[in-house]
């Protein structure tokens, strides 16, 4: 039997309710979906039946996700729940169920298996860079340009197939 880590979109799509697999999620995701458990006892039933376990990922795995997401430029787009499911997926060495493209991108950079729900999933692994639309400088800073102070924008620096290694690009 396959075990999987579920993000919030998995619950909205009904994945844990139609699956017999052992599923895991984090306390942060559990809080995000609390309106599901409030209106229905379905989530609690999954917990009671042992089909859903809520686990806080260890700090070292969370730090690994933060480092990788920072390298890829995806960190500003990830919620704390997203970071927690990625960390738990690494910790448990299981599949991740999500339709979130940013989460999928970071997961692919971490060599995690991603199972899309209602989409085809990602076909390209991306690295994002931040650039200034005013002076066109590339920067690691997320909020404003270190040269002119303009608000930075995000774009993909390179498109690679998911089997290609990730290239490094020099950033100011």
UniProtKB/TrEMBL annotation:
Toxic component of a type II toxin-antitoxin (TA) system. Processes pre-16S-rRNA at its 3' end (the D-site) to yield the mature 3' end. The keyword Transmembrane does not apply. It comes from the Archaea. GO terms for biological process: maturation of SSU-rRNA. GO terms for cellular component: cytoplasm; preribosome, small subunit precursor. It comes from Nitrosotalea sinensis. Belongs to the NOB1 family. Residues 2-105 form the PIN domain. SUPFAM superfamilies: PIN domain-like. This is Endoribonuclease Nob1.
């Amino acid at each position: 039997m396959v075990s999987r880590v579920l993000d919030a979109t998995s619950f909205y799509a009904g994945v844990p309710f139609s699956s017999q697999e052992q599923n895991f999620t984090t306390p942060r995701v559990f809080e995000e979906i609390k309106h599901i458990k409030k209106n229905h006892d379905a989530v609690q039933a999954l917990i009671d039946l042992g089909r859903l376990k809520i686990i806080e990922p260890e700090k070292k795995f969370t730090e690994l996700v933060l480092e990788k997401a920072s390298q890829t430029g995806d960190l500003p787009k990830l919620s704390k729940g997203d970071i927690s499911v990625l960390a738990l997926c690494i910790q448990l060495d299981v599949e991740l169920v999500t339709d979130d493209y940013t989460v999928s991108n970071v997961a692919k950079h971490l060599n995690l298996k991603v199972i899309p729900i209602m989409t085809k999933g990602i076909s390209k692994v991306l690295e994002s860079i931040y650039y200034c639309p005013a002076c066109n400088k590339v920067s690691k800073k997320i909020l404003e340009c270190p040269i002119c102070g303009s608000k930075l924008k995000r774009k993909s620096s390179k498109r690679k197939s998911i089997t290609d290694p990730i290239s490094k690009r020099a950033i100011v």
